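User: Can you predict the 3D structure for this chain?
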Amino acid sequence: MLRERSFPAEMGNSWPRSGRGANRMQPQPTTRSFLRRFHTLLENTAHLLGVELEVWAEGDRPVATHRPPARCLDCSRRDPGLWAGCQEERKSRARRAIDLDETSEWTCPNGLTLAIQPIRNLEPASGALLSVEEPAIEGGSAPTLLAPEDESERRIDDEVYGALSVESETTAWPTEAELGALLDAAKNGAQLPEPELPSVSPTTRSARRRAFLADLTRLLSDQMYLFQECAHVNGELTSRYDELNMLYTISGKLASHEDMRCSLRQLCSQTRETLNADLAFLFIKDRRLSEVLPREGLELSSIGGGRQWNRLLQALATAMTDTGPTEFIGAPSQLLPQFADDEIACQMVATRVTVKEGESGVLAVLRFGSSASFRISDLKLLGSVGQQVAMAVSNCELYEDLQNFLMATVKSLVNAIEAKDRYTSGHSERVNLISMLIGKAMGLSGDELETLRWASILHDVGKIGMPECILNKPSHLSPEEQAIMREHPDRGYHVLAPIRQLSTPAVSVRAHHERWDGNGYPLGLSGRDIPRIARIIAVADTFDAITTTRPYRTARSFDYAVRQILRVRGAQLDPEVVDVFLTLIPFLEEHHVMIHAAAESVREGTAA
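Assistant: Here is the predicted structure, written as structure tokens:
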């Protein structure tokens, strides 16, 4: 029986699968992948050449053995001590071949010839191929290492060995006519002639066998190199795909002005994951924008004996902005000599983010506890991300400038309206402040808060054409005057609706005098049919109207306003909004003077 040590069935492909985290690994051929690819080739070679083939790697035993000679099997049974010494010699020679990349040959006490060849391009270390053959006998036939089962098997072995030893220049291939005649004869049942094989000495045959094994080993090494290169290219393509996908994703997110700080945090987090790093850091000078995003589960205080990370990041921000290098890759100590004594291994890649002249920052990712350096491709990717960040911040700044300009224009319009009524001066700004407090307390989304912002500041824009005699009348209005006054929500809607950016707030401007019980105006809406933004403005408008002086009465106290709001809760005003508003009363009482002063300063600043 032949004894083999085959690779285990559970040995699978050793290459990392594509995906987040794995895509940054360098694929390397391993002993398992080598055996998976070449196990059958080695097995067939051992049988054809009549030698034992062993594959050695780092370890005390070979990882695969094919066709051990009869003498080795007999030695292992009869003299275990000699066999153990032979194994140690094989291990020693294998390690020497791996470490020094050299071939060697020796003869064991039983007369067997052992030769070892290094196999390159395996990780974590190279391997070695060991061949064991019976001694060559001059004048004899080809050696039979194990007795064949019958004479026909012996003849086949002799023919194969002889065929392997035929010199290329002595080989006479049959002509096409001769080959056709042989095939016709075979079809008719004729006996094919026995091939005439040249006589080759066992010594020559053995030398050629070892030369063949040396060529085979070099071929295997080249194949593993090509395999490694293909896997490396595959890993690079996967990485490039992930990076392009990330850039595509973040460009879509950063194209929107909505919640820029949140988008930048997501960007930093995604960049950290794509580069298989532990921490991402973003700092923009003069914008009070600083984000430190460690991976989940990472405690910075536990790294490097409580290193002062704030001091490190501040030093990095200072070194990379304005006058420092525009990009950096390596250990932080190379850029910041004051951190040269840190005990922990740390690699960093960073790039400057230039928003505009005189305003710059830094984007960096760090990897801890690993000697694996970042690559130039990582630096280029980070540079592309930095450009996206700079563009997003610039766009956000332009959007904010446009928003501020539009708001200033709107407030000028509101002030022009309120200038007709000295009693309601600052009313729109105060309603805007109180409405925004209620909206944030209710957890409104960013879009809803933006709508509330515009609707609350413009809720009385419909009074633009209202006669001053009605606005400033010191007594109660007549039914006809009340009818004119009740037109202002609808007028406000028709003023704002044609403006696309204000069409959504216009709906709430129209409904801010609707009542919860359905007795309001101008549409008679009730309950939740009234837009929530309008219901919030109604509470803020009611509160400010009670607590400020009007032509027909003086300002009332906070307690009185609270009692009146509770009295109409569920009839005029939305109960949910009222309940949230009541939680803000202590804050409004404490900052009542500041709210009035802020509204007045905004109004005066806009007028100026």
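Residues 9 and 36 are 10 Å apart (CA to CA). Residues 202-254 form the longest helix (53 residues).
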